[in-house]
Amino acid sequence: MKRVIAILLPRGRSCCRAAELRALVFGIAILFALARPAWGTEEAESVATPSRVTFGVIADVHYGVLDWATPGTGMVELDFVRAFLDDMREHDVDFIIQLGDFCKPSDGQPMLDLWNTFEGRDYHVLGNHERDGGHTFDAVAEWLGMPARYYTFDEGPIRGIVLDANEPGSDGEGYAAYIGNEQQEWLTQQLAETDRPVIVFVHQPIEVLDNSAEVMAVLEQAEQERPGVIMAVFSAHNHQDYMKIKHDIPFIQINSASYVWYSPVPTVRYAEPLWGRVVVDFEAEVLRVHGKETTWLDKDPWEHGAPESGHYSRDVTRPAISDRELTIRPETLQK
Q1: Is residue 8 part of a domain?
Q2: Does residue 134 sit within a domain?
Q3: What is the pLDDT along the chain (335 residues), one digit of tens a residue?
Q4: What ranges in the chain are assigned the alpha helix state H?
Q5: Residues 296-308: b if buried by 16+ CB within 10 A, e if exposed
Q6: b/e map 188-208, b = 16+ CB within 10 Å
């Protein structure tokens, strides 16, 4: 709203002396200076950031894998992601994010084109299977439109930190599960300098990395120095449904959108696709995960001969993403 300042001069008096004019101009300048908003000041920058943010999360879509595993299936993953996008539009989320093993340049353009129809903001995480077909992770990141293999983004009251756990350093053959020294140093700096609470997104769970202890130490140190700075860590990769809390940090595993991998089959499909919708509400002091639950499309993994212990234990191998409600810690609310 504009402020209008009226200067009334008494009639019949001469107000044209130089000294009086100088005083008048000075007074007007002071009034306008007081009336101006303090743009660029620390006080102005700290006003009203939103206290609530919502986002959709989907993981391990594996575009084309179901048709490869069961020829004739067709590219049903397009239907899965189309349904996810429609649901996120209906709930008017602030952004969407996929946690890796999504699609790759050699055959994934239809999936990426579909993803890019979402009208809001969207983010990507690199999974280990993005290298299939001989692609480099840098090339895939550029193709997906990512700013880099690992990066940050701000959404209202939170900062997202996206990690790349596919760096060289793993022992043996197969897919890498490693975060190198340079990225660890970058992560340490981001956690030390952030001006708002952080949610970390990574494809492989921290616990399965070949240098898990090193990366966990970075997170633990950040929590010791700035309690509450890490609100949660979201990961994928395992095609499982669980949550663990370590060093006061919730580690939330987001299940695959479509199946469990069991090599003799090799895919054990869910009857319907899975995804999650997350609400971070600082006024209500909660982080909620709204999940989905379905059934097995036909046989379950154990009917196919999977063991009921270890990776395929029934408490984590299930066609579901669980609803969760976490109280936001007081230390986080003070950030």
Answers
A1: no
A2: yes
A3: 333 333 333 333 333 344 443 444 334 333 333 333 222 223 333 333 589 999 999 999 999 999 888 887 778 999 999 999 999 999 999 999 999 999 999 989 999 999 999 999 999 999 999 988 888 999 999 999 999 999 999 999 999 999 999 999 877 678 889 999 999 999 999 999 999 999 999 999 999 999 999 999 999 999 999 999 999 999 999 999 999 999 999 999 999 999 999 999 999 999 999 999 999 999 999 999 999 999 999 999 999 999 999 999 999 999 999 999 999 988 887 76
A4: 18-35, 42-45, 65-69, 77-90, 109-115, 137-144, 181-193, 212-225, 330-333
A5: beeebbeeeebee
A6: bebbeebeebbbbbbbbbbee
Q: Among 148, 169, 132, 156, which Cα is nearest to 52's?
A: 156
How many independent structural domains does the chain possess? 1
Is 173 within a domain?
Answer: yes
CATH code of 200's domain? 3.60.21.10
Tell whether 60 is covered by a domain.
Answer: yes
Q: What is the CA radius of gyration of the chain?
A: 26
308: left (phi over 0), alpha (psi -120 to 50) or beta: alpha
Q: How far apart are CA 61 and CA 256, in angstroms?
A: 6
This prediction's pTM: 0.84
Q: What does the block give as tokens for 18?
A: 């130089």
Residue 179: Cβ within 10 Å count: 27
Determine the Cα–Cα distance for residues 299 and 41; give it in Å rounded to an integer: 62
Q: Beta 151-155 vs 158-162: how paired, if at all? A: antiparallel
Q: Are 290 and 278 in contact (CB under 8 A)?
A: yes
Rounded Cα distance, 6 and 87, in Å: 55
CA distance 217 to 222: 8
* Distance of alpha carbon 76 from alpha carbon 68, whole angstroms: 11
Q: Give me the domain span that covers residue 251.
A: 50-333
Asked if residue 168 lies in contact with residue 180, where contact means CB atoms within 8 angstroms, the answer is yes
Number of residues written out for the chain: 335
Closest CA to 257 of 59, 83, 17, 114: 59
